[in-house]
Amino acid sequence: MLALSKEHENTVREAGDFVVELRSVSKYYGELAAVEDTSLGVRRGELLCLLGPSGCGKTTTLRMVAGFVEPTSGTISINGVDMTHQPPYRRDTGMVFQSYALFPHMSVAENIAFGLENLKWPRDKREERVDEMLKLVELPHLARRLPESTFRWSAATGCPSARTRDETGSTAA
Ligand SMILES: Nc1ncnc2c1ncn2[C@@H]1O[C@H](COP(=O)(O)OP(=O)(O)OP(=O)(O)O)[C@@H](O)[C@H]1O
Ligand SMILES: [Mg+2]
Predict the structure, then answer these.
(1) Residue 7: which pLDDT band, with cuts at 50, 70 and 90?
(2) Can you tell me the mean pLDDT for 113-117?
(3) How many structural domains compose the chain?
(4) Judgement on whether residues 169 and 150 belong to the same structural domain of the protein
(5) Same domain, yes or no: 67 and 98
(6) Residue 12 in this model has a pLDDT that exceeds 50
(7) Domain check: are 67 and 143 in the same one?
(8) CA distance 19 to 125
(9) Pick from 91, 112, 127: which residue ends a domain?
């Protein structure tokens, strides 16, 4: 069970100005506390790493930030706005899942562009951004292929405020 100390909570409260802020967040599955009374804050440009034994609540915490799991109690703010009960598409976050979570029937370029389509980016801007991301990872030649191996840049494509990665140590992102 993930639980940061009350001392840390006090530090967070004084500091303000966070891109992502959790205040006393808990998630219960029945009697099981997956995450309990956790508070933390991440400023723009900061990297936060959640380390802990299997089952301590890392994925659950990331899922709550991204909006895929609703906390039992506590609040989650993004850019100072309470997002606790907002769906993922309203949050301006990107999540790189522990499993690939790519659309197997869509090309690499289409997978990357998918989030931008949902954000209603115009086609020319989408194509420009997809090209930019592919060049960044030196993979423009794979744009039309189906995603047969790890390719996890789609979460970074829309320039989200916060990007979460769940156990993706083997690939650069
Ligand atoms: N949908 C669910 N329903 C019931 N229990 C769940 C659910 N999701 C997670 N849990 C439980 O919540 C606890 C925290 O799980 P979580 O997946 O967040 O851990 P983790 O730290 O990411 O573990 P790992 O390092 O193995 O990925 C575990 O006891 C897990 O079994
Ligand atoms: Mg996990």
Answers:
(1) very low
(2) 91
(3) 2
(4) yes
(5) no
(6) no
(7) no
(8) 25
(9) 91
Best residue among 28, 51, 60, 68 to mutate for probing ligand 1, ranked by most atoms within 8 Å of CB: 60
Whole domain around residue 79: which residue ranges? 6-91
Assign 169 a pLDDT band (cuts: 50, 70, 90). Answer: low
Atom 31 (ligand 1): residue with closest C-alpha? 55
Ligand 1 pocket, 160 CB below 6 A?
Answer: no
Distance 162 CA to ligand 1 centre (A): 22
Same structural domain, 11 and 83: yes
Question: Does residue 1 sit within a domain?
Answer: no
Q: Which of 40, 61, 91 is the last residue of a domain?
A: 91
* Eight-class DSSP state of 145: S
Q: Cα–Cα distance between 35 and 56 in angstroms, integer?
A: 7
Q: Is 117 contained in some domain?
A: yes
Nearest to 12 by CA among 33, 4, 81, 56: 4
pLDDT tens readout for residues 66-103: 999 999 999 999 999 999 999 998 988 888 777 777 88
pLDDT (0 to 100) of residue 171:
40
**Chain centre to alpha carbon of residue 31:** 27
What is the per-residue pLDDT for 172? 35
Helix (H) or strand (E) holding 63: helix 58-66
55 C-alpha to center of ligand 2: Å?
7
The per-residue DSSP string of 125-156 comes to HHHHHHHHHHHHTT-GGGTTS---S----HHH
In the reported structure, the alpha carbon of residue 91 is separated from the centroid of ligand 1 by a whole-number distance in angstroms of 23
Our mutation pick for probing the ligand 1 site, out of 58, 62, 69, counting the most ligand atoms within 8 A of Cβ, is: 58
**Any atom of ligand 1 within 6 Å of the Cβ of 111:** no
